[in-house]
Amino acid sequence: MNSFRRRPLASLIGALLIGSAPHSVLAATPAAAAATLAHINATHSATAKATGTDPLFRYQWHLLNQGQPVFGDQRPRPGVDLDGDILHTLGIRGAGVKVAVIDDGLEIAHEDLVDNIVAGGSHNLLNGSNDPTPPADDIDTDHGTAVAGIIAARGWNGLGGRGIAPEANLAGFNALSVSDGSKQYVDIRYSWGDGPQARAMDVLVGAVNADGVRASYSSSGSAVWVSGLSGEYGFQRRFDPHPETFKELYALLATQGPQRFFSPAIVTTDLSGCAAGNNRDRTRAPQNALDTSHSKIDASCNYSARMNGTSASAPTVAGVAALMLSANPQLTLRDVEYILATTAVQVDPNQAKVFYKDTVIEPAWITNAAGQRFSNWYGFGLVDAAAAVERAVHFTPLPAMQDTEWTVYDGNSSTIGGIGSPAHLTIDIKQSFKVEGVQLYFAGTHKNPRNLRAGLVSPSGTRSTVMTPFSTLDPGDGFVVFLTSSSAFLDEPSAGRWTLEVDDMLADNGKEQLQEFEMRVVGH
Hints:
Layout: E1 15-18, E2 25-27, H1 30-43, H2 85-89, E3 98-102, H3 143-152, E4 169-173, H4 181-191, E5 200-203, H5 210-216, E6 266-269, E7 303-307, H6 309-327, H7 333-343, E8 354-356, E9 359-362, E10 366-367, E11 373-374, H8 385-394, E12 402-403, E13 407-408, E14 414-415, E15 423-429, E16 435-444, E17 452-457, E18 463-467, E19 479-486, E20 496-504, E21 513-523
Parallel strand pairs: 3-4, 3-5
Antiparallel strand pairs: 1-2, 6-7, 8-9, 10-11, 12-21, 13-21, 14-21, 15-20, 16-19, 16-21, 17-18, 17-20
Keywords: Calcium, Hydrolase, Protease, Serine protease, Signal
GO molecular function: serine-type endopeptidase activity
Domain P/Homo B: 398-524
């Protein structure tokens, strides 16, 4: 994927940004390219080399993957990375972009973060101060500090590794340390950035009222929400108890390795010192060479190599979003999401479908009627930082957002039958625009929803599995799916009949009812 690294240097002249096949090329006139390269060389002469001086950079396979030894059971396949090192070499490093980390805290004095911290920009929701650093005796609240390091650890300073956007600015909010739900909701609403304080955000929890989102969703300076996909088989959708909530509609796989479910650890910042965080003495054996105070490569205990899965995916994509915003500050949230989706690289293209009794319960990759590929496991694919930034530079802003608002099915209930005999509820959408995302709510009388499979079929015939059977949902007196979403219909036309199908994988003759169905479509 990164074949440009083997091209002679002369081939780089004449381009401002060069990505590798299948990545994109942003052409420039020779004079403009020469001027750009001269400027970069003048301003970044001491830091232009991709290898730099950060001692742990060589283990950061997500930034530059040459098949080198990493903190994992096997070496990654060369070339499977974010394709972002060329951006760093060209001076695109996130400068001028503020990133808010909403997590369990953030050590703002950490040696590899302190130079990127926004002075007075953080907030401690427990004591009201501007310092969300975890208490010294709370040794396990290291997640937010690790997230921050993936996004924007300072580069080329001789310390640790480097972030994806190593010149972006950071602010921390310890929302996950607050147990008072009402206070947490209000503070998170503030922290999510209805205003211009934070340009790109890594968000693990919280809710935003739909009215606030409508005000900022299409304006430059709005926040970017990122969600990764975990490597668990089970119920794959995130539900929210607030139907008015507008979550992000794009889930993108950050760089998680070449094999399915293979995720080498990402090196990042840890709580400082050997008494807290992941890198400390414990009664168990260390998991890797950074997981102990006796580490020969990190005697300071300031770094960790245990971040993976969704915890690493979300800040990875947030870091790429920061690079995009630094290249084009006029991008809106919708612009960023759309660019990430349409420049992603398909991974695991031969992913197998999952069957039960000769019936597909997980379809693997699908191609919708607009030609967009999507997978419930991988989203739109592997984030391609070089291609995303190239697109961002020349991107024509999306038209104003169109919103159907919530549309309610008002007909009779439908029987949830067995395989091949699903319940059907339909909603007709009159507004016509290109789909960016779909949200839905449904409810029924079924007492064991873990047996159910649910799919949403678009007017164009694309079927998105929005609920996989044999999940971890608990049985109860009926079921309610408060809010889920699908990104599988990107760029399809919205107008026409949408059909919700729900069947029971373990029932021969159904008697339970699908009673309620609401949906909302947004796009342009």
